[in-house]
Amino acid sequence: MSTGTVDGSSESAVAVSELAAEKALALMDSEGMDRDIGGLRLFVQQGGCAGLSYGMRFDDEPEDDDTITVHHGLRVFVDPASLDYIGGSRLEYEDGLQAAGFHVENPNVVSECGCGESFRT
After folding, report:
1. N or C: which end of the chain has fewer CB within 10 A?
2. SS3 68
């Protein structure tokens, strides 16, 4: 059973900056995805030097038990197990000279690896 769609203001949800939403929506558009049904899946998986790592992909539709939030027109899907690790996080997009891409700012992290790709809570 789906936990439903929330506006993204819940402290347990994942927030998304306006720039990150714009970049993700542009990528969805370039892949011909339906913004009204599909969205960005943010998840946590085992791996990396610190034990856990972030994952992102586009999904055509949410799973039944996903928490679905909407930020600046972007639907974000998070499964219950991942939400335990990343609830309260913020997805940002960095566009700099050395790197460009999505970055998760997670207040639950107690340590990260040097590259910022994996973490421990």
Report:
1. N
2. strand
Please report, as a single letter, which amino acid is at residue 69: T
pTM for this predicted structure: 0.81
Q: What is the largest distance, in Å, between two alpha-carbon atoms of the chain?
A: 44
Question: Which segments of the chain are extended strands (E)?
Answer: 5-6, 15-16, 39-46, 52-59, 67-71, 74-78, 90-95, 100-105, 111-112, 118-120
Taking only the tens of pLDDT, the chain with its 121 residues reads 344 455 444 556 899 999 999 999 999 999 999 999 999 999 988 765 657 788 899 999 999 999 999 999 999 999 999 998 888 999 999 887 777 888 888 887 765 555 555 444 4
Domain map (residue ranges) of the chain: 5-120
39-46 and 111-112 strand pairing:
unpaired
- Residues 5-120, CATH architecture: Sandwich (2.60)
